[in-house]
Amino acid sequence: MIDDNSELSYRTISESETDEDYKLGRKHPLKTVLSLCAGPLINNFVKTLQDAIHLYFVGVQYGDDGVVAVGMSGYVTMIATLVSMFGSVSVPITVSRLVAEKKYDVSSQLIADLIRMGLFVTILLSGTLTFAAKPLLIYLGMTKELIDDTVKYCYPFLFLSGLMSIFYSLCSALLGEAKAFLSAVFQLSAIVISLFIFDPIFIFWLKLPIWSVGFAVVSGPVILSFVLFSFYFFQSKKSNIDSMENQNLYVNDNKQKSIAKKLIHLKFVCKPTLSMIFKKFTFEILIVLKDSLPFVLTGFAGCFPPIFLVKYAILAGDNAGIGGAVNAVVSAAVQPYNVINTIVIGLVQGLAPPASYAHAKRMFSRLLKLLLYVLIVPFMVTIPVTPVFIFWPDKILKIWISGADSLELSKAMVPPMFYTNWLFPISEALTGFLIATGSGALANVVPIARGVGMLAGTFGLYYASDKKSPGVVFMSFMTQDAGLLLSSIFCALPTIVKVVKSMKYDSVLQEGLIN
């Protein structure tokens, strides 16, 4: 039996072990997590940074009204973006499991299924949201002067979400093949195209109306969806790994290892074809949809309960005569909050592929080590930055808004968002662990508890207070985090116990075979 931490001086790239096997199952658990989280981490961080910089550009050119319009549009566009990224957690898990089982044809068909499934769902949802956008913004309390521009700003996100779905699905498939770096390159390139090419052209050079700027934001993923689609569906049919297996190639020195690595990374293990798009759906797509449910529920828990939170916070502000300031704080405060949490999500996404692989291979000791590292690493992000947003939120929000009333109000509204936000990594790691070990049904409980926690806090705090304190309403972030933590521990504990028992059973069985 090979020890989880062992590093061989050479290895055979053969039918029994591919490069993906080594990356998912043989590297040190910490190195595995860090290497596989690199793509999602960089993408998530730069994506939220893109949103923050984009909002800054908008504030410079269009003022606080532009910030409110773009910020509030997020409650419409995030639903379309969420659905377009539905497979970002489950696809890497499923693809990595199929790679572990050497089912390359099935994984190829799965990718084709994701393309047509994503197009169908996003087109259906976009049509619905197009009609729902204006009533939703009216419900949130936006001024009539800004509603029309805000709705038009949402259109590119809604109408082009199908192409965005193709892009994110294929990037997730790359992660499942342990090609995290290549996935990161594509996602970073999409952000660079949007932020540093089309954003400046639309906002500062052409000086287009605020409603048209949404096209700049989606330009990167839309353009690269065609490139990535071509890479996957028009590659040569013969895998480089297959040709290397036929030669029984041994990698013994650094020079050969470097050459072999380059050869392997030029091609993909999954080789979908255009004809697969018209074939019968594979059973694996049902597994992806089932395992995607916690991610989608988490996303909706992050969409709909905050809508009520914002509604009642603005209502409290209107009762106190500061509704405009509350609008500005809400639009700006979500930027740093999202930056921190998406970094955490990126770090945790490094768990899914190797954990799924380890579970499929019954490498239970490695599985628990992976979970331990994923529980520890995110705290390096949350713990140092949390005090900044608790004690000096106005210094941060000054990047996007300039009103003195809004900045003063931020001192009461922003800290409750971060008092217990350091608990978020625990729930994310345990949820990812549940999905990777095939306990997706239990993982569905966690986002539901999150949403219930925020809704209970929102209504309870608003009606229990003087109905004029938006800062008190924002304390519902704490009830949300409490629901997250308790539900994730409650759901994950039985699975962890089961894994420990399986590990002990395998150990006893192995000792018996040896004796």
Automatic annotation (TrEMBL):
GO CC terms in record: plasma membrane
Signal peptide positions on this chain: none
Subcellular location: Cell membrane
Domain of life: Eukaryota
Residue intervals passing through the bilayer: 72-93, 114-133, 153-175, 182-205, 211-234, 370-392, 412-435, 442-462, 482-500
GO molecular function: antiporter activity; xenobiotic transmembrane transporter activity
Pfam families for this protein: MatE (PF01554)
InterPro entries referenced in this protein's UniProt entry, alphabetically: MATE_fam (IPR002528), Membrane_Transporter-Flippase (IPR052031)
UniProt entry tagged with the keyword Transport: yes
Major localisation: membrane
Keyword Repeat in record: no
Membrane topology term: Multi-pass membrane protein
Family the entry assigns: Belongs to the multi antimicrobial extrusion (MATE) (TC 2.A.66.1) family.
PANTHER family: MULTIDRUG RESISTANCE PROTEIN NORM-RELATED (PTHR43549:SF2), MULTIDRUG RESISTANCE PROTEIN YPNP-RELATED (PTHR43549)
Protein name from the UniProt record: MatE family protein
